[in-house]
Amino acid sequence: MHGDGPIRNRTPRADRVDVDVVTAVHAAYASFLPNLWKSLREQTHPRWTWWVEIDGAADEVTEVLTGCGAVLDPRVRIGVHGGAALGPAIVRNLALHRGQAPYVQTADADDELEPEALTRLVTALAEHPGAGFALGQARDLLPDGRLREVSLPLAPGVLERGTLAAHWVTTEDTYRLPAVPAAALYIRDLVTVLGGWQAAAGMEDTALLMAASAATPGVLIPQATLRYRRHAEQRSRHARSSAVEGPQVRGVRSRVAGLLALPPWEAG
């Protein structure tokens, strides 16, 4: 899992790096896609491809993507596996392996990216060649359209290995993340080495971020890169149960401990 030489000593210019933006979507979230699509078109970083992977029935999603014009853009790739829904982890991994850009950004169907999101995150990785991922701040996007600032328990800068897991609160009474996992941009090779998004109900992206943080340093930037939509149908609001959450958290923490015992991951 580890490279033999220095980490990315031939890092390309940030504005020349391709980014795969990965979105898993099912029919219930199709109506949010035009807003995400608009936020992608407004990106100041031009080199991106949007991989939209449809989970389950495709007609409603493709209709929405046709209606907003996304299907006409060559930067948009739509994947349809057919059959029963597979869940966000599997579907994101399908999209991941269809792409090949060196950087990967998650974009949940109901969220939006800030206009300079990709520029700032790619630049952060270029400026911190020892980091395997970059995190931005997230602002809550409320149902009335207002944006609410959210403070984090971490200062911007380099996040040493294990920092995120150490600040992840999972007591019996409280569950609190130190950052929004959906605001992460990863080096592709790191995601594939870690097995992509994990099979963990309601915390697929949390499990990946914690594993990434245990494998390699990251970097947290001070600017907001994500608009995290708050709404009644939000999947994460309904996916948590004590019977599932406890064992999943223990599994993630066990994996973090195992990764921290290994040498740090290095990009080849």
> If helices are DSSP runs of H or I spanning 4 or more residues, what is the number of helices?
9
Low-confidence stretches: 2-10
Strand content: 15-25%
Largest sheet: 10 strands, mixed
Q: How would you sum up the global shape?
A: globular
Radius of gyration: 18 Å
What's the SSE pattern? EHEHEHEEHEEEHEEEHHEHH
Q: What is the CA-CA span between the terminal residues? A: 10 Å
How does the helix and strand content classify structurally? Answer: alpha/beta
Helix content: 25-40%
What do the pLDDT scores average to? 91
Number of strands: 12
Oligomer classification: single chain
What does this structure look like?
The longest helix has 19 residues, at 242-260. The chain has 9 helices and 12 strands. α7 runs parallel beside α9. It is an alpha/beta fold and 268 residues long. The model is unreliable at 2-10 (pLDDT under 50). β2 (48-54), α2 and β3 form a beta-alpha-beta unit. It is 32% helix and 22% strand. The chain starts with 18 loop residues before the first strand and ends in an 8-residue tail after the last helix. The strands form 2 sheets. Strands 1, 2, 3, 4, 5, 6, 7, 8, 11 and 12 form a 10-stranded mixed beta sheet that branches. It has a two-stranded antiparallel sheet with strand order 9-10.
